[in-house]
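PROTEIN FOLDING TASK:
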Amino acid sequence: MPLALRLAIRDWDYMTPLVLGDVSSPRLDLKVDRVGTLIPHVGTSDIYDAAEVSFSRYTQHRIDGDESLVGIPNFIMRGFRHRCIVTTKNSSITAIGQLAGKRIGVTGWRDSGNTWTRAAMRREGVGVEDAMWYAGRLTEAHPIVDRLDGFGRPGYIEAVRGERPMVDLLRDGELDAIFTPFMPDGYFAEESIFRQLLPDFRSAEHRYFRDVGYVPGMHLIGLKAGIVAEHPWVVGELSALIDESQRMWLSKRRKYAETTPFMFDELLKSAGELPEGWDRSGFQPNRKMIVDFASELHLQGILPRLMTPEELFPIDTDGSSTRPSCVAN
């Protein structure tokens, strides 16, 4: 009898084959729920057995000694962050280095994506201490929640006063830029007052990739530790299904590219400008990226100490240990 597993993920298009059952396994009875917001903690969930998990929050669980969740280095969400810095069309800022001394809004201080964006800033000579930071909701439609998560510093990293939407603050000149992974409604309209801070963010992202060798990962797959302990094979089986869903979707996307007028051109550029396997899952292909992210969390004061990649991911995508075995002489 196949093992029943309930998985919560965001509505990523490349998960469509998995959701529809085009990709399946005789060993798993997999139910996929598409969620708009990541569930708080799959390790203690009464509903889910596995889920898409924030890389940053997962590291916090590990450093806190919470082993109810097993993270596997299958990064379901990746992306460059240069495009996630937004300003207004009448702003004179066109380079990351110009953000020194500026007022920057973030949708969540410890969010994985914002951590990577600050890492990109640091590479341009602008550290966390070189700007003034405000955490808040992006628009009126977004909920009022604690977006500092304990990392506020008065006069330096603060919550937006009065919970005013940050797009309003940016429009009125009270913020110079916003870090956001998702653009607000109306952003893509010609009459929008907002723009990406970098006029040619794609070139900046190319340079970043040449320097670091990876596309940053924000979210990964987490499984309940009890299930992994009882069924160690489930790690490799679930990871393989996700990888196959992505492979199948890309194949179909290339065939049915006419969903938007310029998708074919984008697919050609992506294939030519990124090496094959740039999105490969697994511990070794992502080890450098894991090391860099742990280092950034420590440098930015989010983690009290530097964690090793083996501490963060003791189990690889095939279920094997990532720790080197000791051989007695």
Notes: The chain has a mean pLDDT of 96. The domain at 3-78+215-312 is CATH 3.40.190.10 (D-Maltodextrin-Binding Protein; domain 2).
